[in-house]
Amino acid sequence: xxxxxxxxxxxxxxxxxxxxxxxxVATYSSQNLGAGNYHRxxxxxxxxxxxxxxxxxxxxxxxTLCGHTLLSIYSRxxxxxxxxxxxxxxxxxxYALCGMMDVMVGGLRGIGYSVTPMLVSLIGSCxxxxxxxxxxxxxxxxxxxxxxxxxxxxxxxxxxSAHLVCYLWAMKKLRRHLxxxxxxxxxxxSA
Length: 191
Prior knowledge:
This protein is mainly alpha-helical and about 190 residues long.
């Protein structure tokens, strides 16, 4: 338990950039939607995904490489440090996937869809993980702490994929409305 607490404390630090980028994407996407600058929404999403990917890979690998030192802040026990390194090695290294999922959520919220990403995240990140624990984790070959940790990146990938499908559908719907002139085009502002 001590290893989980220590590793989780550092992992919480790595969730901050992804969450912040997700909020930024929601803000900038909604501002550009309101201003009629629809072409910027896609650019925002791509740039934020690249940023969260770079930061996630950098921080996740740094945490793994410096894991022994970081975990020794919380415990001097070799068993605790070793168990914490297992978690950091799986969850922290794949953290960029969670950040990418957060950015997709922000993109959907920014273009007016807030219930959809909530439901997808609830089912994908929580429901699928619980289902894995209730089924796959119960098989003797997969009944290990490592498999439990692998449930995080697996559900992040699946949830990100579902969010991506929802985002592409929502953007297609937005373009269709734009072509039908249901949404006013951007107005030039004169100084």
